[in-house]
Specification:
Radius of gyration: 22 Å
Number of domains: 2
Bound molecules: adenosine-5'-diphosphate, ligand VHF
Distance between the termini: 26 Å
CATH superfamily of the largest domain: Acetylglutamate kinase-like
Order of helices and strands: HEHHEHHEHHEHEEEHHEHEHEHEEEHHE
Oligomer: single chain
Largest sheet: 7 strands, mixed
Structural class: alpha/beta
Helix content: 25-40%
CATH class of the largest domain: Alpha Beta
Number of strands: 14
Low-confidence stretches: none
CATH architecture of the largest domain: 3-Layer(aba) Sandwich
Shape: globular
Strand order of the largest sheet: 3-4-2-1-5-8-9
Length: about 375
């Protein structure tokens, strides 16, 4: 099946579909919500037999007018105040669109911590599953009003990918103001070519990603969409990036409008590894030698002997990024604090107890606690 035909069948199918809608689509040039557009989108989605989850951006762009700001707020407090004003309108508008189709919707506002901590993650999953089972449509956004600069998703692309992963969705549709991935930002490169299918997100693919679009309402640009595609496809979710600019994007996609497809991994990670791979806020970095990278790729744990340097401050159990000589290789939960990790970095396993002055806890990062990126 071609990418377009495959997407068309998912749009009308009975699997769980997550649709992420960027700010640029929801808010018109004068800062108002495109309610007729939202209504048409919901009309299509309400017809499909399978459940739908929406991840809707737009709170800040919608609320900023009330604060008298014409551009994206620079101060965090202003962005948070704008989000507080915009979110209530956004939720009301989605609710009325779904009501018009005889369906209930529910507002879910998440902070990064809700998905980074395993217990809170399982709790969020239970809430979302309960809604989905009852055919109530969750409308998800980041809880911008309380999220601070250091602890936020920052873009809804990754939030959408993590919601899709958490629910074991069949497909994730990222609707944006561009009809897919191009070899370079089409906004500034007239010769950029459209890519219909990306089997693997390699460093060459990542190098194609540029900044957000021209209107100054989007946040993540193409880089965050690729990060989202990596998280979701690694979890067995098929991802499409498509344009929502026309008056009836879902109708056009059903009729074969072009998009970029990121097929689901043939060997999706186990649930806990999916959660690990989606974590976004490492507290430190471990620099590994070539031998350690090869061992990890062979499925082994990370031993202290393969760690050349330790950056950052973290406690045992915290998330750390793993870097090989040629760049990032993955992330994992470190069994040691930063201070302990610095002391044992480069040590053979049988010397760890002696160096620490107490019994060690085995590998620096156990293989069950590692999610590799390639
Ligand atoms: N390689 C690329 N292919 C396609 N679009 C790109 C690329 N690099 C950068 N972009 C830009 O990314 C923008 C979409 O990201 P963004 O503005 O964050 O949208 P959204 O609000 O939908 O999240 C496009 O308008 C486009 O200008
Ligand atoms: N949570 C923010 C949106 C963040 C975001 O990712 O925006 P976008 O790039 O337009 O999808 C808001 O509601 O304004």
């Amino acid at each position: 099946m071609t990418g377009a035909a495959d997407l068309a069948s998912r749009l009308t199918g009975d699997g769980l579909l997550v649709v992420k809608i960027g700010s640029s689509l929801l808010i018109d040039e004068s800062g108002r919500l495109r309610e007729a557009w939202m209504g048409r989108l919901v009309e299509h989605l309400a017809r499909r037999p399978g459940p739908v989850v929406l991840v809707s951006s737009g709170a800040i762009a919608l609320g900023r007018g009330a604060l008298g700001l014409d551009a994206r707020p620079r101060l965090l407090a202003q962005a948070q105040a704008a989000a507080a004003v915009g979110q209530i309108h956004l939720a009301a508008a989605w609710s009325s669109c779904w009501r018009a189709q005889g369906r209930d919707s529910a507002q879910i506002l998440l902070t990064l911590g809700d998905l980074e901590q395993r217990r809170r993650y399982l709790n969020a999953r239970a809430t979302l599953e309960t809604l989905v089972e009852r055919r109530i449509v969750p409308v998800v956004n980041e809880n911008d009003t309380v999220a601070t600069e250091e602890i936020r998703f920052g873009d809804n692309d990754r939030l959408a990918a993590r919601v899709a992963q958490l629910l074991g969705a069949e497909a994730l549709l990222l609707l944006s103001d561009v009809d897919g991935l191009y070899t370079a930002d089409p906004g500034s490169h007239a010769n950029a070519r459209h890519i219909e299918r990306v089997e693997q997100i390699t460093p060459e693919i990542e190098a194609m990603a540029g900044q957000p679009g021209r209107r100054g309402v989007g946040t993540g640009g193409m880089a965050s969409k690729l990060a989202a595609a990596r998280i979701a496809s690694g979890a067995g979710v098929a991802v499409w990036l498509a344009s929502g600019l026309s008056e009836d994007p879902i109708g056009e996609l059903q009729n074969g409008a072009r998009s970029t497809c990121f097929p689901p991994s043939a060997r999706p990670r186990a649930q806990r590894k999916q959660w690990l791979a989606g974590l976004q806020a490492p507290a430190g970095r471990l620099h590994l030698d070539e031998g350690a990278v090869a061992a990890l790729q062979g499925g082994a744990s990370l031993l202290a002997v393969g760690v050349r340097a330790v950056e950052g401050e973290f406690d045992r159990g915290d998330l750390v990024q793993l870097l090989g000589p040629r760049g990032p290789v993955g992330q994992g939960l470190c069994a040691y604090s930063a201070d302990e990790a610095r002391r044992i970095a480069g040590c053979q396993s049988d010397r760890i107890d002696e160096v620490l002055g107490e019994a060690g806890r085995g590998a620096m990062v156990h293989r069950d606690d590692i999610a590799l990126s390639f």
